[in-house]
Amino acid sequence: MTLQRMDNIGIVVQDLDAAVAFFTELGMEVEGKARIEGLFADQAVGLDGVRSDIAMMRTPDGHGKLELAQYRTPAAIGDGSRDLPPNTLGMHRVMFAVDDIDDTIARLRPHGAELIGEVAQYEDIYRLCYLRGPSGIILALAERIG
Q1: pTM score, two decimals?
Q2: pLDDT at 82
Q3: Chain centroid to CA 141: how far?
């Protein structure tokens, strides 16, 4: 048996509609939405009484996917407001390649995006930055310049 592919990355959010709006503004597309509940959900995630709403988002090329989930029951743990630094153990960030990093940041700011550091240039190859999005999600953006 071999690995077939990475299917998606799951992210728990406080406000599903706000997260969908944020990632739509980034350029992702909603592939579908669903309510997840029942015995299969409880068994799969190891919690009792799972009821969540999800939105599957995909990149324009169709290869990258995020599953955004808002737990109704049991309630999500934490409030997403902690400003954890990028070197915190666990999932670090999700990186997206963009055509224009400045325009992307400007479009995401009204949706709550905040730069963590600043836009930096790596040699004559990339402009890069980290920003914090909804529910404290850290995104990295990369614009190829060379």
Answers
A1: 0.89
A2: 63
A3: 12
Give the DSSP H/E element, type plus range, for residue 25: helix 16-26
What band does 80 get if pLDDT is binned at 50, 70 and 90? low
Q: Tell me the two tokens of residue 33.
A: 């939405």
Read off the pLDDT of residues 58-67 as tens digits, 9 standing for 90 and up: 999 999 999 9
How far apart (Å, rounded) are the C-alpha atoms in residues 97 and 28?
12
Angle at 138 (CA atoms; ends 89, 48), nearest 5 degrees: 65
The token duo for 3 is: 């690995």
Confirm if 20 and 55 have CB atoms less than 8 A apart: yes
Take residue 104 and report the two structure tokens written for it.
Answer: 């992307």
> DSSP H helical segments within the chain, as ranges?
16-26, 39-45, 101-108
